[in-house]
Amino acid sequence: MTPIRITSEGSGIGVSGELDAQSAPTLEAAAAKLSGSVDLDLSECSFIDSAGLTSLLLIRDRIIDRGGSMTIVGLSDSARRLIEICGLSETFGVHHDALD
Distance between CA 10 and CA 21 in Å, rounded? Predict the structure, then answer.
C-alpha cells in the first residue's frame, strides 16, 4: 500500500498514492476546507477503490451544496480507467491536464 499524500494550493488539491477506505477520510477533511471552484489533481494517484470513488462523489456533492464546483484534472491511467468505466467523466468534469 502506498500512503496517500495530499497537497493543497489555493482552490486545488493534489492526491498522490492510493485513495482507498483508509485514506479517503484524509482527502475528505482536506476538501472540506475548500469552496468555490475546486480542482482535484489525480495525476499521481496510483489506485482508487470503491471507497475512494465514493469519497470523490461525496466531496463533489458537498462542494456543490456550498455553491461551488469540482473538476478532476490530470488523471493517472488507473484513475482515468475507473472514472470512464463508471461513466463519471461528465459528472466530474474531467480535464486530462494536471494542475501547474
Answer: 26
Domain membership of residue 26 (yes or no) is yes
pLDDT tens-place string over residues 68-92: 999 998 888 888 899 999 999 889 8
- CATH number for the domain harbouring residue 31: 3.30.750.24
Determine, yes or no, domain membership for 41. Answer: yes
* Secondary structure (3-state) at 90: helix
The number of angstroms, rounded, from the C-alpha of 75 to the middle of its chain's C-alpha atoms is 9
Q: Among 65, 58, 73, 61, which residue's Cα sits nearest to residue 27? A: 58
Which residues fall within 8 angstroms of residue 47, CB to CB, at 6 or more apart?
A: 2, 17, 18, 19, 20, 78
pTM of the model: 0.87
Beta-sheet strand order (sheet of 69-73): 5-9, 12-19, 37-48, 69-73
Nearest Cα residue to 75 out of 64, 84, 65: 84
**Within-domain flag for 63:** yes
